Write the structure tokens for this entry.
Amino acid sequence: MLKIEPGTATLGATVTGVDLNHPLSDADHARVVKALGQHGVLCFPRQLIEATALRAFSARFGSLQMISRLADAAEPEVSILSNVVENGRYIGTPDAGQDWHTDMTYNRVAGFVNVLVAKQVPMRDGRPLGATDFANTQAAYDDLPSEVKTGLATATAMHDHNQFQEHMRRKGSQRPPQTESQRRERPPVQHPVFLTHPITGRKVIYVNPGFTTRINELDEAESQQMLDFLFAHVLLPKYRYTHHWTVDDVLIWDHLGTWHCAVADYAPHEYRLMKRCQVLADKIFDPAYLQTTLHVATPENAI
Ligand code: SIN
């Protein structure tokens, strides 16, 4: 029996009673999707799962994004995040997600779910390192001053992949700069500043420090001031949650209602290895899926 137990923080619930090597029933899948909207981050502990089953579980939520060449040999949609070095090379991306962001808002069809399984967790003095931090953008929206909610009710913002890349490089990442042709392939895209969450129907703050460059309806200085305000607001401690990993945790999180940041507090010899699927927000805005599977209406400002 699938059991969902919410934690006591602003985000997070634990899901037990399932083996993710086997497909969830339609009813259990719908419960998981609804819980994802409600709790933002779901942990399925003790899942002895490999890439093929991880891929199948992830694909129930929507189309999979394939962006990394550092992927599982059998399943190219399962990327590897790791500082493990073999034959002089990292076996995965060593610094993925190491700053606040929401996945793929630089895409016209942005991210919906991240699915990670922990294969190796760095430990020091009996404590796990390499946690993942989260912030709750639904709760943060609720507490915004009403003049901000009204003033930006129909506003849009630009999101650019290159911004995160350049930010990581300034922090010392070995990522190469994007070429002109890479930049042309991924031109900046626009999304609403506030989005109606397709599962909960609540508003979320849908700008993030990683990719959002500009609020279109404000002049440059006002836009920067407003983004700085929104970013500081979302990062207030009351909206924050940290997941400390245990090997064999499968963690899934909802990009539409959260931001996340991988905590880089471990040394090069303290190994961390995650396998990841990134799911796009296509199915979750499909009216038929929302009505027949989740029994909710399509929000007006779908992305
Ligand atoms: C990510 O941003 O997808 C990676 C998160 C993590 O490794 O904790």
In short: Residues 81, 96-97, 114, 132, 260, 262, 274, 276 surround succinic acid (CB under 6 Å). The chain has a mean pLDDT of 94.
